[in-house]
Protein 1
Amino acid sequence: MKRIIKNITNNDIINGSFIMPDWVTEIGKSAFDGCSSLERIVIPNSVKKIEAFAFRGCKSLASIVIQDGVKKIGIYAFASCVSLESIVIPDSVKKIERCAFFGCENLKKISLPKKTKLGYDVFYKYPPDLKVEYRD
C-alpha cells in the first residue's frame, strides 16, 4: 500500500530538519518544493520512490541521507538545491530520471552504483569540478 507524504511547508521544518515518518513509502510530487528552511533530511528505508520535483528549490538543503530502499528518483527531484555539496546514492536505486540534480551548482561529489540507469541530463548545469564516483 502506498503511503505518500506531500504538501510539506516551512512550518513543518523544525531546526532545519524534517523527521520523515517510517510509514512513508513515497515522497510525493513537489512534496518539499521550495522549503527554504530545510537544511537536512534522512530518507528512511521505507521510502521506495522520490517523485518529481520533491525537493526542488530547497535552497538550504545541505545534507541528504538516502537509506537503502529507494528504487527511483524522479525528474528534477533535487533541482536547485544550491547548498548541496555531496550525496551518496544507495545501491537500491535502479533509476535516476532526467535533470534530477539540475542546477545544483555547488555539488562537488556524487557516489552511485554503476548499475543505476541515468536519465537525460541528470547533472545538467552542474559545476565543472563535480566528481562522479561509480561503485560496483
Note: The two ends are 32 Å apart (CA to CA).
Protein 2
Amino acid sequence: MEIYGLIASFTGFVGNRIGEFGGHLVALLTLTNILILFGSTILGIVFGAMPGLTATLGVALLTTLTYGIDHNTAFIALLAIYVGAVYGGSYSSILLNIPGTAAAAATAVDGYPLALKGEGGRALGMTTTASLIGTVFGLLCLVLVAPVIIDLALNFTTFEKFWLAMFGIIISGTLTSKDLVYKGWIAGLIGLWLSTIGQEQLQTFPRYTQDFPDLQGGIAVVPVLIGALMLHNVTPGPMIEFKHPGFIMSFTAILLLAAIAMWMSGMILARQVVKVLRIPPALFMPIIGVLCVLGSYSLGLQIVNLYLMVIVGIAAYFLTEMEYPIAPLVIGVILGPMADENLRRGLMVAGGDVTEFFTRP
C-alpha cells in the first residue's frame, strides 16, 4: 500500500506542476507576445550567425528597449533573442568552422566536416532539431524537479561550485578530443588560465597583466542576460522562487516558446543559409574578418580586444593543427571565473586547508 501511496503522491505532484506550467504558458499566448517572440528570435539568429555579433551583444542592445514595458513581454524579447543567437551561432560554426557564439564551438567539431562533404543543409537541420529536443527535455526536467534543484542549490557551497566548474571543463575536453584525451584537458586548462588574466574577483589583485592597464578587465564572457534580469528587479540565485513566486514557471514557459520559434524559423532559414557556401571565399572571408573586428571591439570598446583576437586566433590555429580541440578552451574561458573565484574563496574559508575540497559534499 505504501508503494501505491507514493505513486499516487508523485502522480499528483507531476500533474500539479504540469498544470501550473500550462497556466503560465497560456497566459503568454497573446498576439503581441507572439510577434515579439518571432521577431526577437529571428534577430537573435542573425546576431548569432554573424561572427562578431554575439548573443551577449544582442541581449545588451535589446535590454535598453525593454525597460519600462511589461515584464513578461520584456523577458520574451530578451530570452528569444538569446535563444535565437545561441542557436544561430551554429550556422557559421557548421558552414565556416567559425563559431558565431561560444556555445556553438562544439558544433563545429561534427558540423563543419559534414559541410565539407556537401551536407551542410543536413547538418543545419540536425542541429536545429537537436536544439529543440534538448531544450524541451531540459525544460521538462526543470518543471518537474525545480523544487529539488532549489533545495540542492541552497546547500551548494564554494567547494561544490569549484568542482562543478572543473567537471564542465574536464568533460568537455574528454568528449571533444579526436585521439588523445589529455589534449582536450590541456585545451580546457589553457582556457582556464586565460580566464585568470586581469583583476581577480575577491581582492582585485592584477594577474598576468604585464602592467598593461587594458588587461585589468580580463578576457571573461560578460553575463549580460543576468544584468538584464536585474534591470527588471529580478535577481538570479537560489532565492529567486521565494522572492518571485511563479517566476521559474513563467521563465520556463517563455523558453519553451522561444525554442519552438527557434525551430520553426531555423528550419525555414536553413535552406537559404546553405547558399552562403556558393559565395567565393575571396569575397566572403574579408566580410567575415570585418565582422570579427567589429564584434571584438564592441565588447568593451577597447582596442586591446583586437590585439587579443589576433593573438588568440593564431594560437588557436596552431592548436588546431596539432589536433587540440578548441571547444574545451572556450568552455575553460567561460567556466574559469567560477572555478577561480570559488577556489580562492574556499581556501580562505578553510584557512588554506586543501583537504576541505575533498571532504565535501
Note: Residues 111 and 149 are 33 Å apart (CA to CA).
Protein 3
Amino acid sequence: MENSEINELFKQGRYKEVIDYFSESSVRTPDEYNLLALSYYSLGLFKEARNALKNGISIFPDDKDILFNLIEILYEQAEHEEAEKYLAMALKIEPENYVYYDILATILLRQEQNEEALSAATNALKFAPADVSRQLVEEYSDIWQEFKSESKRFSNFRRARNILLVGSAYNYSYSFRKFIEKGWNLYVLKTPTWVSFQTNYRILEDVGAKIIAQEDMEDFLDDFGSELDVIVRTGYFYGGNDLYRMTCGLTDVDQIDTFFKVVTLSRMKNPKVKVVLAFDGDSFFSDDRWNDWFRKRIDVCDYILFDTNNLANYFITRVIDKGSSQSSKVKVMRVEMPCSSDVMVHFYDTM
C-alpha cells in the first residue's frame, strides 16, 4: 500500500485499518510512526500511541513531529515526569519553541516548583508571537500573583520586563538586542515611515522583537498595556516640514503623535510605565507651530534624550517654558548608535 493510500485511510477516520496495515508491515519513516500513533490515539488507545512514538523517537531522535506528538500525549495523560524528560530533548532541538516552555511552566506550577515555573513561563512569553503572548500573560497571571505573595522567599526575583518601541529606531536595532539578552520582551509598533527605513522593522524582528501592526495597537494595549514597563520612541524629527509632507505624504509628527497616543492609553492601564522620547542629530525645532505642539504634550515623558548638549539646550530654549521643571527630563546620551553600557546603565538605573 502506498503512503498516499495510508494517509487517505487516516483522513477518512479508518484508524483500525491503518493499525492493521502496520501490524503486517514494518514502520519505516517518521511520518509512518506519527500516523500509527495518531491512529491509536484517535481510538482512545493512549498507551499504544505513546509506545509507537517512543519507538519512533528511539530510531529518529531528532524528529520534531514525533517529539511534539509524544509530549502532547504525555502531558494530556498527566504523565508529567516522562513529559519533562522529552521536553528536555525537544528544547535542545528547538530552544525557541514557546509551546514547550508553556507546557513545562504548567507542569512545574502543578508540582509547586514556582521559581522554575516562572522561568519557563518567561521563556514562553519571550519566544511566543505577539498575539499568543497576550493570551499567555493571562494564563500566567496566577504565577505572577503567587510570586508577589511570596516576596520574602524570592526577594531577588523580578518578572520579565516589557518594552514597547514606537517606530523603526533607525540605526538603533542591535542596541535593543541587549534588552532581549537581559530577559526583556521587546515589542515594536510598526508606524508609517519612509521606504528607506522599512528594513529596520525586519532587522528588529531578526534580533527578537515582536512586531505590532498599527491597526492592532488598541487591542494590544487593551490586552497588554498593564504589563509594559517602558515605552520608547527614537529617531529623526524634521518638524512639520511641509515639503516632506507634500513629497512623502507623512512626517515624523505622525509617528510622534502615535507615540503620545500610545502613552495615554498605556498610562490608563499602568500609571508607572516609564516614557522615553529620544531624538538623534538630524532633528530640528525651528517651527513655532510644532514647538507649541510639543510643549503641550511632553508632560507625559519621563526622559527626553538627545545626542548632543547643543541640541538638548536648543530644545530647552525653544520648546520648554522658561523656568519649567521639564528641563530636568532632558538628558544627553548616544541616541543614534549607543554602546551597550549606555543602553543598560541609563535605563536600568532609572527603573
Note: Strands lie at 162-166, 185-190, 210-213, 230-237, 274-283, 303-306, 330-332.
Protein 4
Amino acid sequence: MYWRYETLDISSYLNEGENIISAEVINFGEHRPVAQFSYQTAFILQSEEFGEVINTGTGNWKVIKDHSYNVRPVTSDMTDGKYYVAGPCDSIISVYHPWGWKQKGFDAGKWVSAQLIQKGVGRGYMHGTPDVSPKGDPFNGRKN
C-alpha cells in the first residue's frame, strides 16, 4: 500500500522574518470512509531546503482540537440498511471555532505542544519500507 503526500513550493508565500505555517488535519476515526486507511491522526511537514529547521519532528508546534466540528455518523436507519462506504455527515458550531488561528498574532495560549508519535520520515520510506510517495501539486500550478 502506498501513502500519498502533497509536495508544495510555498516560497512565494513566505516573507522576510517570521512566518506562520498552519495546517488543518482531519481524521474521522471509526466513522471514516471505507477507503480511508488510518491508524491515528498525524501530520508530517518537512522542508527540502531547510531540513530540520522546518519539520514537525522538531520545534515547538502547537495544536488544538477544533470543538466546533462534530462528526455525525451515518446509521443503517439512514441508508435503509444498505452498505454505506462514504464518509460521515458533519455539524459545525461556529461559536466554538478558533477564528483567526491562521493569522500572525493569534493568541495560541490555550494550545498545547504537539506530541511526537514517532519520527515521520516521508519522502520515500516509512517504517523501513518504500510506501510514501509524492502525489503531485494539489494546486495544479495555480495560486490562491
Note: The chain has a mean pLDDT of 75.
